Each structure stands twice: as structure tokens, then as C-alpha cells.
Amino acid sequence: MVSNDELMHKLAAGFVVETEQDMSEDYHRLLIQTLTITADTELISIFSILDALKYVPTLNRRLTELAIIQDELGHAHIAYRLLKHLGVDVDALIYERDASEFRNPYLMDLKLQNYAELLTLHALLDRAGYVLLGDIFHHTSYGPWKRALTKVDAEEGFHVRNGESGLRLLVKTDEGRAAVQAAVDWMFVMGLDFFGMADHLKKRSLQLDLHLKGETNDQMRQRWMKSTVRFLDSIQIRTPVHWDPEQDAYLYDFPYPCQWDEAERRWRFDQPIEWSQVLSRFKRHGPYRREYVQTLRQGRETYQKLLREGVA
Amino acid sequence: MLREEDVKTALQSVNDPEIPVSVWDLGLVTNFGIEGHRVSVQLTFTALGCSCMDWILDDVKAAVLRVPEVSAVEVEVVWDPPWTTDRMTAKARQQLAAWGIQS
């Protein structure tokens, strides 16, 4: 391995990292951290979609959701495979790690309650994934990941389009429009949370210095808002933010971050909180995490049992 | 006067939802005809279990209806000839290759 300084010097000249020998210790550690968050997010995301299949109104739209689940598993597989190459015991990661140690965002640990929420998940949160992975795709200095993300990028675009196309149909009725607005009311802020702590509270990012990513949290959050609000405006759905031409940015119309009421499934705009409190909600994880991880393990146990019985 | 070229341009504008390549270049459109202001399209899918059939049908209808002289569109799903990768244009092959998909 090399030192951070040595590596940064080479990266500045356009060096592409391919092997562990090319990395510094920090680079190796941060890459594993980012890949774990990505892999866990892709994997755990399938459970709320799977659970929400019962709300999908037509057989063909269910097939679309199944295709999305298949994509997400493929994306998880890519990230876990890269982790394996970096010396991580992926089997232990997926099947032995405590459920509390998975690194997926809080939203993935919830259950959706109707079709509007599922479509909003695709239109807003898959878009957040698209923004985050798009940044890595364009800026990462790690060659194997960059190459693997070409297909991931195309597929995440499909998930976003699925959400958009479904929502455009849903808002045509008053009832559908109300359900979409209700979904956006809580899921939009979940989308903001996806990008993590505000820049001014963060130390200088080693991830940026080591070219593991290219944009800061707030830059990505702004990019997500721009694209999300443009779409929601086009279907006349309200968002709690507005464009400020002077600051050349989207500004929040409520104190962000604020308290999340888990039982009521709504944001308490009257209760502003600190980012440290947001991070502790992330750490506590959501109400269905254990169930989802348990389902994953049960699947493997059942399959292995079947295999054993088949052989015997 | 409704021209074949206008209908073709409309069909070329419809992308496959999964991978952004035109359904025309993918070879999904097997035939189309014009009768006055009515258009009929024969369309196939890459697989019987295609996960976006309704979505593609909706998009094709909407795109052809956007052509000013068109008053009605009928899309018929056909499975003969069967779709194979041979039906794709060179443009589709190039686009898919750029997404990391070779045929």
C-alpha cells in the first residue's frame, strides 16, 4: 500500500486505482465503507418493494416491480463482489452480521402502505440512489467500480422512469392525487436525509480528497432537489422547498432537519433537531430491519435444507 | 395528409423503459399501416414475460396520437415473427454496447 499523499499526487494526474497495492490504508477502509453502505442499501431495499407488491394494481406492473427487484439484487451482488475482491468475508457480512449493523438508510427499514408510496419510492428515492451512484460513476478513482456502474446507472434510470410514469397516471384522479401528495409529504424529506449531514458541519472529506466521490453531500442534495422538484412541479405536487435565484439553490420551507414521528409516519415541522439526532435515528434503524434480515436468512436456511434433503 | 414518415418518427421517439433505446431500433415494431387518419401498429416484445408490456403499449399509443393528423391508433401484439437480436438495427447494437450489453 502507499501513503495518502503519494496516492493523492497520482490521483491528481488522473491515476485509476485497480488493485489493493495501488491504495492507501485510508482509501481501502473508506472504499469498503462506501461499498458496504451501497451493497446493504441495494439488498435491504428489495424487502419493502416485495411487501408492497400486493398494492400493485395490474399483473404487468407487478412484473415491472419484479424486474426492479432483480436489478437491485444485481446491484447488491456487484457491490458485494467488489467487497469480496477487497478481502471482505461477504458471507459473514450478509448472513452472520447482526441486523443492527447493516448500513442501509432508515427508509429501507419501513413498510409502504399503498401503491402511491411505492411509486414515490421509485420516483424520489431511486432518484436519490441515481444521484449518489451517478456521482461515484463519474468521479470514482476506483476502476473496477466505475466499470461496473455503467449498467447500474441505466437500470436506476429505469426505476425512476417507472415511478414517474406510474405517478403521472395516478394523479389523474382526485383520490390518486391526494395519495401521491400524502406520500410525497413524508418521503421527500426522507430523500433529503439520504445525502447525510450538511456540509458546514462536516470535517474536510477524505473521500473527496481520495477521489472516491466528486460532490459534497449538499451538492448532491441540491442536484436531487432540482430534478425531483422539476418532476413534481410537472404533475402539480407540492414540495416543502423553493428555488431561490439569489442563492442559486433550493431552500427549505421548514426547519431542516426536524423530528420524525415514527408512529404517525410524519415529520414534525414544529420540532427542529440537530444533525446528531438524525444520525442517532439512522443508527437505531427502522421498525422492520430485523424482520427483513431474518427473511433473508430464512430463505437461505430453507434452501439449504431443501438441498440437503434432495441429496439425502 | 398523414405521411408514413411522421408515424415512423413517432415510433422512433418511444424508448424501451428498461434501457433507453428506441422500440423502433430494437425491432419491436413488425409492421404499421395508415388508413385515412387511423394508424394500426403491429408490435412484438423481446420476451413473453416482458416486464413492461403495458407501459410500452401506452407509450406507443400516446406517441402516435401526438402526430397532428392521427385520430385513432390501434396496437396489435404479435408473436410471429418472434423477436430475436437479429431484429435490432446497428444503432441499437451500438447503444446497447455503450451500456455494457453485447448481443
Automatic annotation (TrEMBL), chain A:
Gene3D superfamilies given in the database record: 1.20.1260.10
Xref: SUPFAM superfamilies: Ferritin-like (SSF47240)
GO CC terms: cytosol
Pfam families found in the cross-reference section: PaaA_PaaC
Biological-process GO terms, alphabetical: phenylacetate catabolic process
Protein name per the record: Phenylacetic acid catabolic
Domain of life: Bacteria
Organism: Sulfobacillus acidophilus
